[in-house]
Amino acid sequence: QVQLVESGGGLVQPGGSLRLSCATSGIIFSISTMAWYRQPPGKRRELVAAMPTVGGPIYGDSVKGRFTISLDNAKNTVSLQMNSLKPEDTAIYYCNARIPIRAGFNEHWGQGTQVTVSS
What is the mean pLDDT of residues 49-75? Predict the structure, then answer.
């Protein structure tokens, strides 16, 4: 019943911008932690941005000041605005949700969307 579907990836030149979107179902944003992760080619998955239920957004050091995560409660979507893109931002980007349960949480992932930054 929980579903995450990413969109908005593509090819962009260095310095350009992209906006990723994650369409969700079966998630209550106010009690769940939403996040974006990415996996560059040949590297391990890393946190890009997260929106915890307490406090403001959290960003990975490499994207601070360039990326912005936001939630749209009316549309049940999670967005990632990416500006001033660099070649090292090239990766598959995944939407992630942690949903609370009695003894912890359930974690769900989208299928991923490819972002390629190249001249």
Answer: 96
